[in-house]
Amino acid sequence: MGTAARLARYLQVLAQAKKMGRERISSREISEYTKINATQIRRDLSAFGRFGKRGVGYRIDSLLLELRTILRAQGRHNLALVGAGRLGEAIASSPIFAEHGITIAAVFDTDAGKVGRAIGQVTVSSYQSLAQTVRDENIIVGVLAVPATSAQTVADDLVAAGVKIIFNYSEALLDVPADVAVQTSNPAVELLTALYFHLM
Length: 200
Prior knowledge:
With about 200 residues, the protein is of the alpha/beta class. The chain has helices spanning about 5-20, 25-35, 40-45, 60-70, 85-95, 95-100, 130-135, 150-160, 185-200, and strands at about 25, 50-55, 55-60, 75-80, 100-110, 120, 120-125, 140-145, 165-170, 180-185.
């Protein structure tokens, strides 16, 4: 796991701790939630400045601010979600994106029966408007909540419209240009990974 991925995990824990009313947290506690060694956590954080005090821990508010700045989560990053089925609806209804400076600016679907329906804070648009909306809304991230059979076509359309980051919830192996980042989320694979390390 790279540094950015670890920092994102710390950010997730800190955001949840703040919701629970916590003001401080130790590297040991962050370690318990992330399963990342506490020494590694201290090393990662010290690379960007002095945030905590030995025996006292980290102030959650200030560390959240610093991590959001480091991970560029302070500004407004627009995301396009393609697929307004059950998975797309769950994604659009989750508050987690907004908590980290990410706005679901548009949701698209090819099903005329879903177009015009509100999911989360967004109204579903026709897939035909994808290219223009991506340009108009300065969208750089696309989330695929579509069947594997449609994923490559959707990825091609997003890339052609200017999207540089694709989060893929389908099982398709996407072929994209070298300057486009693809992150695939497969719960079964993640579960197998967890089982492997648990059963070792």
